[in-house]
Write a structure and sequence with these properties.
- The chain has one domain (about 5-155).
- It is about 30% helix and about 20% strand.
- The protein has helices spanning about 5-20, 60-70, 130-135, 140-155; strands spanning about 30, 35-45, 80, 90-95, 100, 110, 110-115, 120-125.
- The strands form three sheets. Strands 1-2-8-7 form a four-stranded mixed beta sheet.
- It binds zinc ion.
- Zinc ion binds near residues 83, 86 and 136.
- The site of zinc ion (ZN) has 7 residues, from helix 3.
């Protein structure tokens, strides 16, 4: 067993890591584990290398609300996902000669967010969706963008500046 890591070994370990990542086309019924697919629960932002995704501008308000949403993800058991569009994280060797991938911060995401849309639709997106939007110009389906921005509405509407109070 040599102590150095050949590029081929590193590549192999990375593809192994990526095999955990799951790709779902936007707006397909959400399906994971034992949960049966339901037509009102839709996937958004489950991107993966080898699959093209739409790019384009999104409203600033959408990004702001998305930032807030990913701070309280759910379904953490679904595990970590790594961004497949960023450069591979550097591999370091620890004191016992094992290959270790340091936490690359935002390029890894744990959990997912759920956003209620109109007509009883619920969108499920990985927390990485924020990273995809900010760093890779991913443009989610417009109905998801609208749902996220609508999510901002009722709860955060400020009571000040109303017509009755001035
Ligand atoms: Zn990335």
């Amino acid at each position: 067993m040599g102590r150095s890591v050949s590029p081929a070994t590193v590549a192999a370990s990375c593809s192994l890591l990526h095999s955990w990542h799951m790709f779902f086309p936007d707006l397909t019924p959400y399906e994971y584990g034992y949960e049966l697919p339901r037509s009102n629960v839709l996937n958004v932002g489950w991107l993966a290398r080898g699959h093209t995704f739409p790019v384009g501008p999104v409203p600033e308000a959408f990004v702001n609300e998305l930032r807030r949403l990913v701070k309280s993800p759910e379904n953490l058991y679904r595990g970590y996902h790594t961004c497949e569009f960023c450069p591979e994280p550097p591999i370091v060797i620890d004191s016992e000669g094992r290959r270790v991938i340091p936490p690359p911060g935002e390029t890894m995401g744990n959990g997912e967010i759920r956003v209620a849309g109109s007509r009883g639709i619920v969108y499920v997106a990985p927390v990485l969706v924020l990273h995809y939007v900010e760093k890779h110009s991913y443009q989610p389906p417009i109905e998801f963008v609208r749902a996220v921005m609508a999510n901002d509405g009722p709860k955060r509407r400020k009571p000040t500046r109303g017509p009755q109070r001035r």
